[in-house]
Structures are given as structure tokens and as C-alpha cells.
Predict the structure.
Amino acid sequence: MTVEVLDGVQAQVGRFTVRRVLPRRPLRTVGAWCFADHMGPAEVTETAGLDVGPHPHTGLQTVTWLMDGEALHKDSLGSEQLIRPGQLNLMTAGRGVVHAEEATGTYRGTLHGVQLWVAQPDAERAGEPAFEHHAALPVVEGSAATATVLAGDFAGTVSPARFTTGLLGVDAVVRPGVWAFGLRPDFEHAVVALEGEVLVDGVVARPGQIAPLPAGRDELRIDARQPARILLLGGTPFPEKLFMWWNFVARSADEVSGFYADWRDRGERFGDVASVLGRIDAPVPPWEPIRERPAPTV
Ligand code: MN
């Protein structure tokens, strides 16, 4: 089957305009991967970074991976973690967590990276929040690529990051040439072009685009005529129906209404994070005004 490349959409995240390649209307999830923003490259200073103020999450894990630059993560667990290229930040929201992404106070230059979300399965999404930082990740040399394993097992090399569903995440710096590798046929996959232009099974993918690859294939061929960089995502097709709104991954509008009210009312579900940036208010869910109308009197 021919690969059908999808265009991402532009969105605003803090000071950055990002390319959102997941979710797209014809592609809601890739395994448990349910959200992918490609940020930059853009210039930051010691005092002006990504600048995303404190905001909540539920039912997901955030994965932050930088190709260039530095960023500072802070969260309601008390974590304060500088991240650099080659390192991974993994925050598990569970029942609720708050985080902010700030300037580092020391770094000036280009910031370029991705932020991804992984949906937590029903059995774990009400669990405790957590944060882990991996200072180094395993690297695999391919015929025309240097691949870093962010999540799961690639070519027998396993990432130390902990996920509970079958998942694959690989960053690959691709050299001009042909790079062919094996895929797990029980996983679905997608290729996100981060830099340069690649051919995914012969079909062109450029930055801002995502190439979905349905389950059932056991190999993939990437061709590059110029230096390029891609992100390969994969995983077991996620069997649960998600309801995603704003920063919440839930299963229904009613559930999101509860999370919305907890954030608005500063309920104990979400902690506090000390940040120089202002707290971000949630927009009113579009279904709320209808719910809040008084019942008709008879
Ligand atoms: Mn966030």
C-alpha cells in the first residue's frame, strides 16, 4: 500500500509556533502515542525560552526530546531538570500533575525539539504522577543513519525509559543513502520528518509532515538525498477510545469537565509548581455552557 503523508497544523505553545503532526483527523494515535509537537528551530535567550507557564495534565506521559538547545522543566513533584540534546524527560501525569517549561538562565541560541504524549492505559491513568530524566540513551548505527532509542526496543537495543504499553520511539540522523530496517508487524508506525527531506517507501516527507504506516509491515526503507533527521514512532494499536481536550487525556467529556473544574478551582488533584511564568487558565470546554444552563421549569 502506498504511504499517504499527512500535513501537520500550526499551533502556539508558549512563545513558539509549533508543527502539530499528531493527532490528525485521519490519524488519532500511533500505538499509545497520541500527540506530537515539533518545536522550532527558533532562537531563545537566557530569559526567554519556550516559556510555557504552569499547566496541568492527566492520563498521559510527556516525552521531551531536544535536537538542539536547552530547556528547563519544573513540575509539581518538585522536579527541576535541565534537558540537553541526547537526553530524555519523561513525566507521568496519572491522576494529575502540573509543569512549566522555562528559559534556563544560562543558554542562548537555537532551541529545536519535540514534545510527545503517550496515553496511559485505563488501568494506570488514575495512578500517581512521576518524573524521570535519562541523561543518556542508547544509540544504534545503521547503514545510513545514527539512531537513538527513546522508547522501546530498536534493532535489539532497549531504551531505559519506562512505558507500560508496547511502544517504539527512535530519533534518526540520516545520511544520504538508503537505510532499511525491520519493524514489528504487530506495531503500527509513523515517520515524522524533522529536518531535510526523506523518502518513506519512496514517498517524500518533509518537516511538518507525518507518514503513517499501518500494522502488518515487517520492514521500512528510508532514502535520503541530503542529510536529514526523522522520528520513528510505533506501538501496539491503542485499544481504548480517548477523549482529548486541552491538556487532558480522558475517556469522556464528563471526565474532562471534572478535570477542568479541579484546575479552575485549584483543587487538590493538581499541585503547585514554583515558576517565574504565569499559571495558564483552561478555556471553558465548549460543552460546558449547555450543561450549566438551568433546568427548564415546568
Ligand atoms: Mn505540558
